[in-house]
Amino acid sequence: MARKGRKQPAKAMAAVGRSLGYFPRRRKATRLQKRKYDKQTTRAYTPAPNSFQLIGQVFSIFKKYWRPLGGIVLVYLILNIIFASGFSNISNVFAEIKLNFQQDGKWHLSEAFDGFGSLVSNVSIGSVSEAASVFQGALFIVISLVIIWALRHLLANQTIKIKQAFYQSMTPLVPFLLIMFVIILQLLPITLGSLIVATIVLAIFTTSTTAMAIIVISIFGLAIWSIYMLSSSVFALYIVTLPEMEPRKALRSAKNLVKFRRWAVIRRVVFLPLFTLLAMAIIVIPLMLYADVLVVPVFFVLSMLTILFIHTYLYSLYRGLLE
């Protein structure tokens, strides 16, 4: 009875406090408690589709919306030929590869593999003018915005026109460029950082084996660092195209989107270039062996389609993370 009597004054004081507008202070959650709650909330989401499910979704989208998406790629292909010398660049690179790898006027399987690898690695740094390089970069940004706008409206079951996609998709150009700048900065560890590490290590160590081991380990670590950062920033490209979205808010939203799921996202993102290269190799290498006259036009068309494929894959992954 005594204990019950002690609680009554406390309850009475609390009632008086509430009547006067005073409320008891709530305990603030610690960082560990907040992290645990966020992790439990993340687990409540539907698991993101795996890499092969995403590939299936991409081809399903292509099959359903091949007319508008194909029209967009066709416009991009024509603009690339006219302004960016894309076709002539690939033709020049492949002519040099034939001189370096082809023996007796024929391709052997090992030479075809080497030639394909050289074609993929050198096509972006071929002998094109500075103006053509600028046009290639500008066209890539424009077509990326067009594809993202088209995918967002098509997957919302809206009918679009190709002209409409090119006109209305340019609104978030400046925020999109700012996100692209952030992504370029995040690529510096694997690009510029690897070059600096290799230069320093080769200057310090005289033993080539030791230097090579250190360089490989360093480049691997720098690559993981860049991929870790890109695994969230790449989705900011799609978030920032939403109406009235600021770049900083888009980056923050992208970071929250992959929270506690980053390594699963990294696996799906890393799978994308591997699958793309494998698919291109399956098509191009047989052409090198049996009909190398078709290599340049087919590779050019595939490079145009690759941009559409990459954006559709990543946008499908982005939608999967939202569910």
Describe this structure in words.
The chain has 323 residues and is an all-alpha fold. The longest helix has 32 residues, at 208-239. α9 runs antiparallel to α11 (208-239) and α11 packs across α12 (247-257). It has one domain (49-322). The chain is built from 14 helices and no strands.
Main features:
0% strand, mainly alpha, 323 residues, 14 helices
Summarize this entry quickly:
The chain has 323 residues and is mainly alpha-helical. The protein has one domain.
Secondary structure elements and their pairing?
Blueprint: H1 2-19, H2 31-43, H3 51-64, H4 66-83, H5 86-101, H6 109-122, H7 130-154, H8 162-168, H9 173-186, H10 192-204, H11 208-239, H12 247-257, H13 262-290, H14 295-322
Helix pairs in contact: 3-4, 3-14, 4-7, 4-14, 5-6, 5-14, 6-13, 7-14, 9-11, 10-11, 11-12, 11-13, 13-14
User: Mind describing the biggest β-sheet?
Assistant: none
Query: Over all CA atoms, what is the radius of gyration?
Result: 27 Å
Structural class call reads mainly alpha
Low-pLDDT runs of 5+ residues are 1-7
What is the mean pLDDT?
84
The backbone outline, from C-alpha atoms, is globular
Number of strands: 0
Work out the strand percent.
under 5%
The string of secondary-structure elements, in order, is HHHHHHHHHHHHHH
- The residue fraction in helices comes out at over 70%
How far is the first residue's CA from the last residue's CA? 54 Å
Count of domain modules: 1
What is the tally of helical segments?
A: 14
